[in-house]
Specification:
Blueprint lengths: L1 E8 L2 E7 L4 E6 L8 H18 L10 E7 L2 E6 L6 E2 H7 L4 H20 L12 E3 L5 E3 L2 H7 L17 H4 L6 H17 L9 H10 L5 H4 L5 H10 L11 H14 L6 H34 L1 H16 L12 H14 L2 H7 L6 H19 L4 H4 L6 E12 L5 E12 L2 E16 L2 E9 L1 H5 L3 H4 L2
Antiparallel strand pairs: 1-2, 2-3, 3-5, 4-5, 6-7, 7-8, 9-10, 10-11, 11-12
Helix pairs in contact: 1-4, 3-6, 3-10, 6-9, 13-14
């Protein structure tokens, strides 16, 4: 082959070549760094195997590499097309495609994926890094496995780690299959429609936790132009439960074709207004929930050993027979006050004295947060004394109790301000509960709880703050 031109663009080295009959394009692999010779040998052999695997596929939007070849001393991937294709990532920085075009792109990618499934080609799904655009704005797909293998060695822009496109089951050591690849296409489609990834995190561990345990914001709240039908389709692709996703790429193709025929890709004016009016509240609520989750997840992991020590201490102290606070002389009003005092002060023993109910997640919350606050106090985390900040993770203020019923079982209405101190500020909400009391072995005890406290008992702290 004869070298015609060499050009660096979009972080790639492009070589234009020709032989007696055709013109070819080559892309340099190692524009950033070259791996160790042993790694280099294994990498090249792996690329050659991946090239062979894709040869049976024929689709106009699939760009296949034909070989790995050294050109002017540089290893390059040779393809059988002539045009320098622009990475989709950089294209989207310059253009804002219409929803109809994005739907066409997704339809094209689904067609390629369906063809791969028919040929029993197993690959690890889609990523933005493997997508290119030609001069007419048509989507093109390179082998994603090849792109993932070499992207650390070139200067091309990469927005996110490969894990962003992985479905939950891959992190649970399940193999890639059609359902997993549907999810990866859903992650790409989500970004194309909204301009945002379905999950965001600075640390990879946080990203994986979100993929496994949280639900992304529905796309129409990021982009109200998205129709409810298209929104539901994308939610299905990104479902954590495999059985709730589409049955395969053929079903996705039919769904997109039907939407295009019925002109239901874009929202109607009424649907657009409805989504737009709710979007700010939904996004804020979702971010607050994620902040609460990240805060407690990280804090609880950090205090596992001290928590065990404290638990042993509490058990020993409880068994040791310390004088109970709640006695036969305690009035129903005092017991109710002590219940909220125990929550505010993170006093698990006092909490258990006030009621015989199963408090579920509330007891664990009180115990674990008690340790966090004790550690803050011991190590001056938060510097409350110096800066005057509230050093409590959460607390109760302005408790007001009013008696609604007296016989046979007293009922109190409790209103109070519940607050949570997160890393990005304080969240607070005025809450109301109904408290029913009854005598247990001659001592007033809380025997019924209803209201906002129920969400906290069930471990739904984020929902309680909405």
């Amino acid at each position: 082959m004869e070298l015609i031109t060499k050009e660096e663009k979009w972080g790639f080295d492009f070589y234009q070549l020709k032989d007696a009959t055709s013109t070819y394009l080559a892309e340099g692999i190692f524009s950033r760094r070259i791996p160790h010779p042993r790694l280099l040998y294994n990498l090249i052999k792996g690329l050659e195997e991946k090239i062979k695997r894709m040869q049976p596929l024929n689709h106009p939007a699939l760009i296949k590499y034909t070989e790995v070849k050294q050109i002017e001393g540089e290893y390059c991937l040779i393809s059988d097309q002539e045009e320098r294709l622009q990475p989709l990532i950089t294209y989207l920085q310059e253009e804002q495609p219409a929803l109809s075009r994005i739907a066409d792109w997704c339809l094209t990618l689904a067609e390629i994926a369906a063809l791969a499934e028919k040929n029993k080609i197993n690959w690890s799904g889609f990523s933005l890094d493997a997508l290119r655009v030609d001069s007419k704005g048509q989507i093109k797909l390179l082998d994603p496995d090849i792109i993932n293998s070499i992207k650390q060695y070139n200067k091309a822009v990469s927005l996110w780690p490969a894990e962003l496109y992985y479905p939950p089951e891959v992190f649970q050591n399940k193999p890639w299959d059609e359902q997993a690849r549907l999810y990866s296409l859903g992650a790409v489609f989500y970004y194309l429609l909204t301009g945002k990834p379905p999950f965001t995190a600075e640390e990879k561990a946080d990203l994986i936790d979100q993929i496994l345990n949280t639900t992304p914001i529905e796309p129409l709240y990021h982009n109200p132009r998205i129709s409810p039908g298209l929104n539901r389709l994308l939610n299905s692709l990104l479902s954590k439960q495999r059985e709730q996703r589409l049955t395969g790429f053929e079903q996705l193709i039919l769904a997109l074709q039907e939407m295009k025929s019925a002109a239901t890709i874009e929202a109607s004016p009424e649907e657009w207004d409805q989504a737009k009016n709710r979007s700010a509240r939904i996004i804020k609520s979702s971010r607050r929930k994620l902040g609460v989750r990240n805060f407690f997840r990280k804090k609880w992991l950090a205090i596992a050993i001290p928590l065990i020590t404290l638990t042993v201490f509490l058990i020993v102290g409880f068994i040791g027979g310390s004088e109970p606070v709640v006695t036969k002389d305690s009035s129903e009003l005092e017991v109710t006050q002590l219940f909220y005092q125990a929550i505010a002060q993170k006093d698990i023993i006092l909490l258990q004295e006030t009621t015989s109910l199963d408090l579920k997640r509330l007891e664990k919350l009180v115990s674990e947060v008690h340790v966090i606050e004790r550690m803050r106090l011991a190590y001056s985390i938060g510097q409350a004394n110096e800066e005057g900040t509230d050093d409590q993770v959460f607390g109760i203020e302005d408790l007001k109790l009013s008696k609604l019923e007296t016989e046979p079982q007293p009922v109190f209405k409790a209103s109070y301000l519940f607050y949570l101190n997160q890393e990005d500020g304080r969240q607070e909400k005025t809450m109301e509960d109904m408290i029913k009391l009854g005598k247990v072995e001659g001592i007033w005890q809380i025997v019924g709880l209803a209201g906002d406290i129920e969400l906290i008992i069930e471990g739904e702290l984020e929902q309680a703050l909405e």
